[in-house]
Write a structure and sequence with these properties.
The complex is a heterodimer of chains A (420) and B (169). With 420 residues, chain A is an all-alpha fold. Chain A is built from 17 helices and two strands. In chain B, a hairpin with a 4-residue loop joins strand 6 and strand 7. Classes of the chains: A mainly alpha (420), B alpha+beta (169).
Chain lengths: 420, 169
């Protein structure tokens, strides 16, 4: 937060700002003090904002041409691809945009895991982030249903049937979700409505996410608090704006590569076959970004427990600030946690891989081990590690860590060994 | 004196909250119930199927309430296999007699009870059905034998209207 009171220079600005302090807000956002040691892993917040805006704008345009009806949806998507001016481009941006959104959000989440950004006093930022992530999954799932291809239809069938695992009321809930006795036109129209609504809910939560961030300020790679007053921070504009902008450009190159050179590589060929309620495709797999959770679902041989395990795998993240008992935020100063962190990354990647494979034989065994490890990491490793781990001494300030020198010779020496 | 006054106000608060809660509930309920199956969906509740062309060993699949229904005319071996299974071996114990009124005809929802995929005919370890989604195996009576599905494939209400016609629903 900028500490000084802001007064607009122009007379009109002052008049306006006294009535609605928008200029004070703009001034806060430009002057917002940001730790000067932020690395490129911190640019994904801006990239995610770009992704959200891209999805909203392209989605708005697609909705002008799309028809949410079981008999016409598939054809209307082909109409967008073939007849609508630049329809192919807009749809490919929207479809690949979802994948890019998840790519960025996973980097953003794992950034937080590495640098302990979820720890006090940033728990609320983290929990809002988890809610955004859940809404993103809901939006992505419902969006994937709209083209009404085979994967749309059967993906919708499988995911809505997850609710039938709930004892007693499960079947009633599924019928209610469907608006019928199977996935059909009523399901499609309500999914379209919700798919349209959710991005705006996310937008609102993003505002809260940033608001909550601006109360304590950014975490940073060394994970210690900013000293006030000090030279630990730089104003958001122009320093972070330029850095975020450069990272965004790099990200857009990757984005454009998918859109222009392999727009269908992240999708499934089966979704170019119109939905057929009589034939299930041989291999139903969700989009890549849901695969780890799908692997967890399939690794449990019981229907209800499988669903419970899958949901717990996501919801356990919300409890992370309290499961991680370590007072040290950044993994840089936690030699053991750093190793467990990378094991977790590998574990999630393995889950993603086996989630795409048939659930049998060796794949099933691997999925079970990886699922067990996933929960072990959060429920056992993190609480115990925080109490047992011998952490490295943290620098006295951000400026000290940036300049490398230290009044304390032991810390300076340690820093050298870290750099090697 | 003051006690009495407080009680009177408490009563007013409670009454107001109660009426308010009923009002909110009555307003919200239509918003929720509108998502349940509507009259036009419910109207499609029954289907008549001509099965005269179905020979033993053949299955036809028809659509009923948006869901596939398998109508299989079973062979003698399949019937014997289905009826010789001991109930203790079953995850969801049901005799074949309960599931097929006429042993030759098996009429059931072609929907896997795990997550709703359509199982493949004449596949799997029990010569019945196999669900490709998550690997559930069903026997010749459509009973779950192996895999994540919790129950046997559902038998809808049906009756033979005449020798060649089955009415489902």
């Amino acid at each position: 937060m900028s500490d000084h009171e802001y007064t607009p220079k122009s007379k009109f600005g002052k008049w306006f700002n006294d009535r609605l302090p928008l200029l004070t807000l703009a001034n806060h956002l430009t002057d917002y003090p940001t730790p000067k040691n932020l690395n490129y892993w911190w640019t994904f917040g801006g990239i995610l904002t770009f992704c959200l805006i891209t999805q909203i704008v392209t989605g708005l345009v697609l909705a002008m041409h799309y028809i949410a009806h079981a008999d016409m949806a598939f054809d209307s998507v082909e109409h967008i691809m073939r007849d609508v001016n630049y329809g192919w481009l807009i749809r490919y941006i929207h479809a690949n945009g979802a994948s890019m959104f998840f790519l960025a959000v996973y980097i953003h989440i794992f950034r937080s895991l590495f640098y302990g950004s979820y720890k006090a006093p940033r728990e609320i930022i983290w929990i809002i982030g988890i809610i955004i992530y859940l809404l993103m999954m809901a939006a992505a799932f419902m969006g994937y249903v709209l083209p009404w291809g085979q994967m749309s239809f059967w993906g919708a069938t499988v995911i809505t049937n997850l609710f039938s695992a709930i004892p007693l009321v499960g079947e009633g809930i599924v019928t209610w979700l469907w608006g019928g006795y199977s996935v059909d036109n009523p399901t499609l129209t309500r999914f379209f409505t919700l798919h349209y609504l959710i991005p705006f809910l996310i937008l609102g939560l993003v505002v809260l996410h940033i608001w909550a961030l601006h109360v304590p300020g950014n975490n940073n790679p060394v994970g210690i608090d900013v000293k006030k007053p000090s030279k630990d921070t730089v104003p958001f504009h122009p320093y972070i704006v330029i850095k975020d902008g450069f990272a965004l450009l790099m990200f857009m190159i990757v984005f454009a590569f998918f859109v222009f050179y392999s727009p269908n590589i992240l999708g499934h060929a089966d979704n170019y076959i119109e939905a057929d309620p009589l034939v299930t495709p041989a291999h139903i797999v969700p989009e890549w970004y849901l695969l780890p959770f799908y692997a967890i679902l399939r690794s449990v041989p019981d229907k209800l427990l499988g669903v419970v395990a899958m949901l717990s795998a996501i919801l356990i993240l919300a409890a992370l600030p309290w499961l991680d008992t370590s007072k040290i935020r950044s993994a840089v100063f936690r030699p053991l946690y750093k190793q467990f962190y990378w094991i977790l990354v590998a574990d999630v990647l393995i889950l993603g891989y086996v989630g795409a494979m048939p659930a049998e034989g060796l794949y099933l065994l691997i999925a079970r081990v990886a699922t067990a490890y996933y929960f072990l990491h959060f429920l056992v490793v993190l609480p115990v590690l925080g109490l047992k781990e011998r952490t490295l001494p943290v620098p006295l300030s951000i400026t000290e860590s940036v300049l490398g020198g230290s009044p304390n010779p032991a810390i300076a020496k340690n820093k050298e060994s870290l750099n090697n | 004196m003051s006690d009495k006054k407080t009680n009177r106000r408490d009563f007013l608060f409670t009454a107001t909250y109660a009426v308010g809660a009923v009002g909110v509930g009555a307003t919200i309920w239509p918003m929720i119930d509108q998502m349940n199956p509507d009259a036009s969906v419910k109207a499609l509740a029954s289907t008549e199927v001509d099965v005269s062309a179905v020979t033993p060993g053949k299955t036809i699949t028809v659509l009923w309430r948006g869901k596939p229904v398998f109508i299989r005319r079973r062979t003698q071996e399949e019937i014997v296999e289905a009826r010789s299974v001991k109930l203790e071996e079953l995850k969801h114990p049901q005799t074949d007699q309960e599931r097929a009124k006429d042993p030759e005809w098996l009429v059931m929802l072609g929907v896997c009870t795990h997550l709703g995929c359509v199982p493949l005919d004449q596949k799997g370890d029990y010569n019945g059905w196999f669900c490709p989604c998550h690997g559930s195996h069903y026997d010749t009576s459509g009973r779950i034998r192996k895999g994540p599905a919790p129950t046997n494939m559902e038998i809808p209400e049906y009756e033979f209207v005449n020798v060649n016609t089955i009415k489902i629903g």
